[in-house]
Design brief:
With 70 residues, the chain is mostly helical. 97% of the residues lie in helices and 0% in strands. It is built from one helix and no strands. The chain starts with a helix and ends with a helix.
Length: 70
C-alpha cells in the first residue's frame, strides 16, 4: 500500500509538471506570435516610411531642378 501511494504521488507530480510545461509552452507560443505580429507591423511601417522618404527625395530633387532653371 505504501508503494502504491508513493507512485501515485510521483504520477501526480509528473502530471502537474507536464501541465506547467504545457502552459508555459502555450504562453511562450503566444508571446512569439505577438512578436511576429509586431515585427510585421514594424516592417510595413518601415516600408511605408521608406516609400514616403523616396517620394520626398524625388520632390525635393524636382524642386531643386526648377530652382536651378530660374
Amino acid at each position: 500500500p505504501e508503494m502504491s501511494r508513493g507512485l501515485g504521488d510521483v504520477y501526480k507530480r509528473q502530471f502537474q509538471n507536464l501541465m506547467y510545461f504545457t502552459l508555459n509552452l502555450m504562453i511562450m507560443h503566444g508571446a512569439v506570435q505577438d512578436l511576429q505580429e509586431q515585427s510585421l507591423r514594424l516592417s510595413s511601417t518601415w516600408a511605408l516610411r521608406e516609400q514616403v522618404l523616396k517620394t520626398l527625395t524625388r520632390s525635393l530633387k524636382n524642386l531643386l531642378r526648377l530652382y536651378q532653371m530660374q
